């Protein structure tokens, strides 16, 4: 059984809408919202890896590592690393699930080879052994 408790506070409706709209605008400029994707492919890296690598502001962003490795726009078939956010694999309209899985594997191998970081998928792949 799963339960949850929430503590809600009243707030100014206009101020809350402004916060929400700011978040939506930020996502529109930092994520490939108009493209077919399954969202972020990998979980963020552990803080210990970010510290070891000396990432800017100790960012744990996998997108940062993929971008730094020059892997934006890497493609397998119809699956391509987004040029907007490198932790997104987008479908150019012709991608198969195998394309996405193979591109994911290539990214994991490159990041492991370059930075010694083992990426972990955030997505769940169904139907694969």
Number of strands: 4
The CATH architecture of the domain at 35-115 can be given as: Alpha-Beta Complex
Q: What is the strand content? A: 5-15%
Helices, by number, come to: 4
Q: What is the level 1 CATH name of the domain at 35-115?
A: Alpha Beta
Rg value = 18 Å
Kindly, what is the distance between the CA atoms of the first and last residues, rounded to a whole number of angstroms? 29 Å
* Succession of helices and strands: HEHHEEEH
Describe this structure in words.
The model has no long low-confidence stretch (mean pLDDT 87). The protein has helices at residues 13-30, 47-53, 62-68, 97-115; strands at 36-40, 75-76, 79-81, 88-91. Strands 1-4-3-2 form a four-stranded antiparallel sheet. Helix content is 40%, strand content 11%. The protein has a domain at 35-115: UDP-N-acetylenolpyruvoylglucosamine reductase, C-terminal domain (Uridine Diphospho-n-acetylenolpyruvylglucosamine Reductase, domain 1), CATH 3.90.78. The chain starts with 12 loop residues before the first helix and ends in a 14-residue tail after the last helix. It is an alpha+beta fold. The longest helix is centred in the last third of the chain and has 19 residues, at 97-115. It is built from four helices and four strands.
Q: Nutshell version of this structure?
A:
By secondary structure, the protein is an alpha+beta fold. It contains 4 helices and 4 strands; from the N terminus they run αβααβββα. The protein has helices at 13-30, 47-53, 62-68, 97-115; strands spanning 36-40, 75-76, 79-81, 88-91.
């Amino acid at each position: 059984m799963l339960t949850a408790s929430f503590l809600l506070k009243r707030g100014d409706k206009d101020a809350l809408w402004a916060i929400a709209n700011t978040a939506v605008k930020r996502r529109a400029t930092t994520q490939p919202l108009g493209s077919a994707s399954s969202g972020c492919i990998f979980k963020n890296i552990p803080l210990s890896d970010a510290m070891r690598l000396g990432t800017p502001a100790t960012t744990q962003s996998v997108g940062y590592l993929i971008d730094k490795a020059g892997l934006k726009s890497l493609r397998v078939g119809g699956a391509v690393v987004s040029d907007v956010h490198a932790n997104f694999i987008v479908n150019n309209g012709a991608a198969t699930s195998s394309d996405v899985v193979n591109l994911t594997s290539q990214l994991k191998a490159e990041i492991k080879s370059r930075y010694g970081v083992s990426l972990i998928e955030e997505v769940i792949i169904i139907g694969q052994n």
